[in-house]
């Protein structure tokens, strides 16, 4: 009898703890992937970002922090990419076209950052920008020249880049929004650029 | 008896060696290089190490551990919950990006999956064992199929085609496990429970199944 009671108690305890642990580790059975977890975590607590030195398609040097006071959309790309980065480029173009023109430059800008600085020189950045209609003023294409800074930046954003074995990369693609205080405040799917633009305009 | 003791000592040494070897950076990197190696080689091996280590413990200790844990059912549940956690794509990514998670994996799979299963296994009746088998099979099939048809990459650390390879491997493994389980019925009720061992009797000399 004592045995049975103990067994029941242990069973209940294990179940409660087990479900609780799974609940906790999946953000309430909502985030089963690292990508979903990253998005949920950023929403909960906006992330500060390191100050990396960037270089755009015209060779101008700047930092993320230079955008303080404005909203900034950030995507990570490499210019030879023919799949997901192309979608990213198109999504950015749609965002740019759907954001109220008065906001562009004054309160909102776009930035595509290459994570392949070795091969993405300013000429490649410029050609990627031209392909997607980036004007190099309100939408810049940039690279991080310093490898260590790039690593820190990717880590802070939670972007994982892995070689695909065919000279290219696979990476988690998303649209990152930096708030006016320079912190990463939200991460959105690339499938809904118009919705994203609508949120910006509000 | 003496031979048995030395045999189990050798087995213990071999298990410990395997564990330590698996924890070395080169072997970890090799097993974790692919999703299939990570999920279907490293993780099951870690759990198996716990299972085997448990069975190498003195009988009396196994019995008292099982009693302390409240019997077979909580043990199986614990193993189910912990193994479910390590099936999550974000747990895989976590293990690759955080050394804390990686250490947690190396500790929890033997200690919280293999060991409790090892403790519970002899006491489980046919229903209990069937639960463990079908749970493993269904978890593998569902997860494997999800990985095969998933329209997105579920692990940031693995390529999308690896996801498909791992998915198919899981489905195949599930079929294999299912076949083994069915086979165990035909091989004279190996799926049935042994009686709780008497402490003075040697495990190795007991028949593997009870004569039902």
Structure, described:
The complex is a heterodimer of chains A (202) and B (212). With 202 residues, chain A is an alpha+beta fold. Chain A has helices at residues 2-25, 34-44, 84-98, 122-132, 147-157, 193-201, and strands at 53-56, 61-63, 71-77, 108-114, 139-144, 161-163, 169-171, 175-178, 184-188. In chain A, the strands form 2 sheets. Chain A has a 7-stranded mixed sheet with strand order 2-1-5-4-3-8-9. In chain A, strands 6-7 form a two-stranded antiparallel ribbon. Chain A is elongated. Chain A starts with a helix and ends with a helix. The model of chain A has no long low-confidence stretch (mean pLDDT 92). Chain B is an all-alpha fold and 212 residues long. Helix content of chain B is 76%, strand content 0%. Chain B contains 9 helices and no strands. Chain B has helices at 2-23, 25-32, 35-56, 59-68, 72-87, 89-97, 99-121, 126-149, 160-186. Chain B is globular and about 50 Å long. The A-B interface holds A 3, 6-7, 9-11, 13-15, 17-19, 21-22, 25-26, 31-37, 160, 162, 164-165, 170, 172 and B 67, 69-71, 73-74, 77-78, 80-82, 84-85, 88-91, 93-94, 97, 153-160.
- The proportion of strand residues of chain A reads 15-25%
- Mean pLDDT across residues of chain B: 87
Uncertain runs of chain B: 190-212
H-E string of chain A: HHEEEHEHEHEEEEH
Oligomeric state, counting identical vs distinct chains: heterodimer
The major β-sheet of chain B equals: none
Tell me the distance between the termini of chain A.
Answer: 65 Å
How many beta-strand elements of chain A? Answer: 9
Structural class of chain A: alpha+beta
Distance between the termini of chain B: 28 Å
Class from helix and strand fractions of chain B: mainly alpha
Order of helices and strands of chain B: HHHHHHHHH
Task: Tell me the overall shape of chain B.
Answer: globular
Overall residue-averaged pLDDT value of chain A:
92
What is the topology, as strand order, of the major beta sheet of chain A? Answer: 2-1-5-4-3-8-9
Radius of gyration of chain A: 21 Å
| Number of helices, where a helix is a run of at least 4 consecutive DSSP H or I residues of chain A | 6
Largest sheet of chain A: 7 strands, mixed
Q: Determine the number of helices of chain B (DSSP H or I, runs of at least 4 residues).
A: 9
Helix % of chain A is 40-55%
